[in-house]
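Lab notebook, design round three. We kept the backbone fixed and only want residue identities now. Task for the bench partner: fill in a sequence for the structure below.
Input structure tokens:
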């Protein structure tokens, strides 16, 4: 079965088989889209992987800083990290050389790490106000604008990494401070526990103090009573000593009279003794007898005074008995008798007490009397020397007289001391009263102190409990826990991104744009060599649709070949990967056929001017296909015309055929391309009728291309 349109189309292609040059032209038509799409995609298939060839100046001015006893050289560390990552071709130079290189184009940009970079990084660890660290990026868009855009994105990542490291160190200090605070607060809690325990002990001690002060107050009262009793007794002693002093004074006065008498007698008797020795002997014997009697009386005096006291007490008792038996005695007489008897007893006791208190003096008097007796006997024995012995006796009497005076003086001193003792006991009694009052106030104060210490103890216990609760709430991280929290706080929000139908590289992402673009350009070139309408068919009477098909079929064959060659080279040379290869090939063949139908129509209908129209359509589709940026970023005009052009539908469908995903856009693209294919062929068929009519304008066109 013959197909007239196919036969006519074959004649158009056989026209190029006449010589080698025409055959090369057909091959060129097939390869031309490859040059456009292949070379363009190859040139920036993966530019990010080759950024390490881009020369960038690196200026390191940073000086090390001190922080927490450590040396921080953040600038040098950052420079080493940049060179290690090899994002760019880093070249360490001076500031002047970097500025000159950026201006001349030797370097695309320069990164300067300032001199205070380490100091600013370490500033959060000090006591001053933290200051953000900065990096200075110098670019020259005259060198290359895109490189600057890529660099800014790269440096944002570098700056974020450097900042994250600085924040990591800052939070490490904070969490380390938490640990120190936890330990110190734990010590404070232990101290508060001890303080609470000590306050409790102090409270107990204050209670015991209050109890002891009360007891001491009672004892002080008893002490004051005892001192008052002692003072009363001391007063009585003073009174007795006064009586003793009076008695010893009387004795001393009598002894003085005796001494005077003895002295006078001695003065008279000594001469007489010398002259009258026999008489003296007799007199001496008489004196001896008298002295012996005196000694005997002195020895018996204590017993006699005691007997006198006993007789006085017996008499007093007899008087009481008598008075009890004779109630008729008047009361005043009864009282006078009782008072007199009591006074007699008192005087007798005083005399007896005095005698007994001066028993030593009486013994001495008795001894002296014995001595006088012996002396007198010796005088009598030694009459010739009696005068001398009398003189000696007088001396003894003088000594006895001096002794009695000393006893009287001692009694006066005892009286004065007793008076002082009485006065001192009075003062002591007043002090004991003050002591009792002070101990009363101390007891009251101790009770108040016990109450206050009880409140302090409760407060300290609450403080200890609060500190224990605070210690429990303050974290104490180990190195691993602190490091994990440092990482989290230095980068608290992390983007967990997932990409559906991920594109492996830059070229694969742009392939859906450049492949349809190359097919449109290839279609324009095809109809620069091929005639959109075969002149022989046009001159005949064949239907317009057959003439249109005859002009479209050779171009469609070349277009399908163009699509196949482009895909083959991109896959086997550049490594293009697609999720749906058969569907991609078929869809691009359909897209090329639809493009050629549109291009055929504008060339058939408008002649040479159609080439300009095809180029204009190319420009409109380039700007509305959203091949680089989302269509929403384009002005409204391009968004409005986008649905009415074939290439935007092709770009969307090829994206899904290469990367994967829902096939909805593919089916929509197929439907739109079929409409453009049918519409283009239909319009070309109508243009056949137009071209069969020759006019003066067609014979002499105003514009020739």
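Proposed sequence:
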């Amino acid at each position: 079965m013959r197909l007239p349109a196919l036969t006519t189309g074959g004649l158009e292609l056989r026209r190029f088989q006449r010589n080698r040059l025409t055959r090369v032209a057909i091959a060129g038509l097939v390869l031309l889209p490859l040059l456009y799409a292949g070379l363009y995609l190859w040139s920036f298939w993966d530019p990010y992987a080759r950024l390490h060839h881009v020369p960038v100046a690196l200026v390191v001015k940073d000086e090390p800083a001190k922080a927490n006893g450590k040396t921080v050289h953040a600038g040098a560390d950052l420079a080493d990290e940049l060179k290690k990552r090899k994002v760019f071709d880093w070249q360490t130079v001076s500031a002047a050389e970097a500025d000159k290189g950026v201006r001349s184009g030797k370097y695309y940009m320069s990164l300067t790490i300032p001199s205070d970079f380490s100091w600013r990084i370490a500033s959060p660890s000090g006591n001053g106000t933290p200051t953000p660290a900065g990096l200075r990026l110098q670019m020259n868009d005259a060198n290359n604008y895109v490189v600057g855009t890529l660099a800014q994105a790269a440096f944002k990542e570098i700056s974020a990494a450097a900042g994250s490291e600085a924040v990591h160190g800052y939070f490490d200090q904070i969490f380390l401070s938490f640990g120190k605070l936890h330990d110190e607060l734990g010590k404070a809690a232990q101290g508060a526990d001890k303080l609470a325990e000590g306050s409790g002990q102090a409270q107990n001690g204050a209670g015991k103090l209050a109890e002891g002060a009360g007891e001491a107050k009672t004892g002080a009262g008893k002490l004051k009573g005892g001192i008052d009793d002692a003072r009363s007794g001391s007063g009585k002693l003073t009174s007795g000593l006064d009586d003793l002093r009076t008695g010893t004074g009387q004795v001393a006065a009598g002894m003085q009279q005796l001494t005077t008498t003895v002295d006078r007698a001695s003065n008279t008797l000594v001469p007489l003794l010398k002259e009258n020795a026999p008489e003296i002997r007799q007199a001496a014997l008489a004196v001896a007898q008298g002295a012996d009697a005196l000694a005997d009386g002195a020895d018996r005096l204590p017993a006699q005074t005691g007997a006198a006291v006993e007789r006085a007490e017996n008499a007093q008792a007899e008087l009481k008995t008598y008075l009890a038996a004779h109630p008729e005695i008047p009361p005043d007489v009864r009282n006078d008798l009782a008072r007199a008897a009591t006074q007699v007893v008192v005087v007798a006791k005083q005399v007896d007490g005095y005698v007994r208190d001066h028993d030593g003096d009486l013994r001495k008097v008795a001894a002296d009397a014995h001595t006088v007796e012996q002396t007198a006997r010796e005088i009598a024995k030694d009459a010739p020397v009696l005068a001398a012995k009398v003189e000696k006796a007088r001396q003894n009497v003088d000594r006895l007289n001096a002794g009695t005076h000393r006893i009287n003086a001692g009694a006066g001193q005892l009286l004065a001391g007793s008076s002082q003792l009485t006065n001192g006991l009075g003062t002591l009694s007043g002090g004991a009263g003050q002591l009792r009052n002070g101990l009363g106030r101390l007891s009251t104060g101790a009770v108040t102190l016990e109450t206050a210490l009880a409140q302090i103890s409760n407060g300290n216990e609450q403080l200890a409990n609060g500190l224990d609760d605070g210690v429990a709430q303050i974290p104490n991280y180990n190195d691993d826990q602190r490091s994990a929290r440092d990482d989290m706080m230095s980068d608290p929000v992390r983007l967990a991104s997932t990409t559906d139908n991920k594109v492996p590289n830059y070229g694969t992402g742009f392939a859906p744009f450049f492949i349809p673009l190359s097919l449109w350009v290839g279609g324009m070139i095809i109809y620069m060599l091929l005639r959109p309408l075969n002149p022989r068919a046009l001159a005949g009477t064949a239907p317009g649709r057959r003439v249109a098909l005859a002009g479209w079929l050779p171009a469609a064959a070349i277009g399908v070949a163009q699509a196949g060659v482009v895909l083959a080279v991109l896959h086997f040379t550049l490594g293009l990967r697609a999720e749906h290869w058969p569907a991609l090939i078929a869809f691009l063949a359909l897209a090329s056929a639809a493009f050629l139908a549109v291009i055929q129509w504008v060339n058939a209908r408008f002649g040479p001017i159609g080439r300009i129209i095809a180029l204009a359509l190319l420009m409109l589709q380039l700007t509305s296909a959203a091949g680089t940026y989302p269509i929403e970023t384009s002005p409204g005009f391009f968004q409005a015309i986008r649905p009415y052009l074939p290439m935007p539908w092709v770009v969307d469908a090829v994206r899904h055929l290469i990367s994967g995903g829902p096939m909805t856009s593919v089916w929509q693209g197929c439907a739109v391309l079929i409409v453009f294919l049918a519409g283009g062929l239909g319009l070309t068929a109508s243009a056949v009728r137009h071209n069969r009519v020759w006019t003066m304008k067609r014979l002499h066109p105003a514009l020739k291309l």
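Keep this in mind before ordering anything: The mean pLDDT is 75.
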